[in-house]
Amino acid sequence: MNKNTFVxxxxxxxxxxxxxxxxxxxxxxxxxxxxxxxxxSSSSKKGKNVCREIQEKVCELExxxxxxxxxxxxxxxxxxxxxxxxxxxxxxxxxxxSKQMYLRTGGAFNPAxxxxxxxxxxxxxxxxxxxxxxxQELLLNTDFSKVxxxxxxxxxxxxxxxxxxxxxxxxxxxxxxxxxxxxxxxxALLDFGGNIQxxxxxxxGSLWRVGIKNPWxxxxxxxxxxxxxxxxxxxxxxxxxxxxGVRYIHIFDPKTGCPSNSNLESVTIVCESGKYADALSTAxxxxxKDDAIDFYKANTDFDFVLVTKExxxxxxxxxRGFIEPLTDFSRVECTADSFEK
Length: 341
Ligand code: AMP
Ligand code: MG
Prior knowledge:
T-fold, binds adenosine monophosphate, binds magnesium ion
């Protein structure tokens, strides 16, 4: 084979490999979320098997982390205040990670807020505004750093209860990516209800295009082009109730024990790890615009997009050239290059 024939052979092989990818898409409901897995693989049989493996893994994690399934580890922990050793390794991994995030975010991310969130009715949808005294009383048992995990097992103080709802889907997406990688999948897109996880690029070599929801008019407010990244959004518009003209959203400020009243409509985090993006999107939402940007300046290991109540679009310098505004913003701002990685 001479050089030219070899180059043509390589080119045809490349075309065959990239075009020979079959798309398999499966949807299921888990973790109270409609989830869709889209995979490009060598055959639909392989694609279906990998989708099934992912669905089984996500359901297994739900069986550990659910606050409502009575035989889940977290349900048992919340009710008995103890889980005997050995603690499930995935629960222990998520707990360690969550403790780090609790400390790093100055408590803005706090999985121990569950009793407070329940008091407002977000777990049952029987919404109410509790008295300030009741909220203060419940806040006394939300110091997440006090959760103990040692050789005896996992221990909660008397009235503490945990909920990994702000990080669980991101953690599950990381586990799904591990399954995709171990099966040799180079191109896939996971949509775990607001938590997007892009694996590689699209089979034609272009970047994945992911929309950020428009909080006001529906549709997309902006589009991001990404490769091998988690894109996770926390938005006040996702779940809320209104009483006497006030909107109470499902993201809580651990300092006040009340729904966050920050100046943000949504926070989108872009980075490799799904659990990091998930925990950060919730925490930066609680921090509000200025503190979220300050947090980014001190921890530039992720990118962000803030949509503010004043209709601003603010994004980190790492996204320059990869973000396209799709609605009328009052202002579009990119953070200064000096914070760049
Ligand atoms: P996310 O959609 O990832 O921002 O998660 C929001 C969910 O996490 C809420 O529905 C609550 O169950 C829980 N949550 C609310 N506020 C917080 C907080 N500050 N820290 C941790 N979890 C929270
Ligand atoms: Mg989150």
